[in-house]
Amino acid sequence: MRDYDGTEYESVESSAGLAGVPDGFQRLWNPHRIAYIEQGAASPGDACVFCTAPSLPDEQALIVHRGERAFVLLNLFPYNSGHLLVCPYRHIATYDQADAEEVAEIGALSQTAMRVIRQTSRADGFNLGMNQGAIAGAGIAAHLHQHVVPRWASDANFFPIIAQTKSLPRLLGEVREELAAAWPSAD
User: 150, 81 in Cβ contact below 8 A?
Assistant: First the structure.
């Protein structure tokens, strides 16, 4: 298999041929997460990822669509495959700081995201939401973003509860390509 940046890797590896004592575990490889190891933890002085993303190529920033006042990108820490974020270009923290045009475009892009995900992945439902402020669970509290999380009847399993692991069947780059290709040219 190939990662979104072209790196080859094995998606699942048996422990049978590894050095040491074999065990019964399969290894779940998440090569896209190496960026966080190599870059280290973000510090308070680091640039806002949502402000930086539009200056990067779509493939690198995982941007699916660019609008006039907001853009859509894949979440690097998805709850499910196809988990999108709708962000205004303007660096604002909360929904009440958004102007009428930003609110309208965030809403329209969220609707289009739902249609595109339903078309490409046959999602059974969606979770939409905004966590505003660190106390409310926002991972990036300084920049407003709406989550569009596709859900399927069979997407829940024991992994998150027992193993604190989320199994994702597709690589982020593959999902970005598919959603960007299916995005309508005019919202």
Answer: yes
Q: What is the pTM assigned to this prediction? A: 0.71
> For this structure, is 145 an active site residue?
yes
Q: Domains plus CATH for the chain?
A: 1-41 (no CATH), 47-182 (3.30.428.10)
CB atoms near residue 120 (< 10 Å): 16
| Beta-bridge mates of residue 77 | none
- Beta-bridge mates of residue 59: none
Contact status, residue 84 vs residue 128, Cβ threshold 8 Å: no
Report whether 102 contacts 88 (CB < 8 A).
yes
Q: Which residue has the tokens 């974020």?
A: 85
101: nearest Cα among 65, 67, 54: 67
Candidates 65, 83, 143, 145; catalytic one: 145
- At 154-172, the pLDDT tens digits run 766 555 545 566 666 678 8
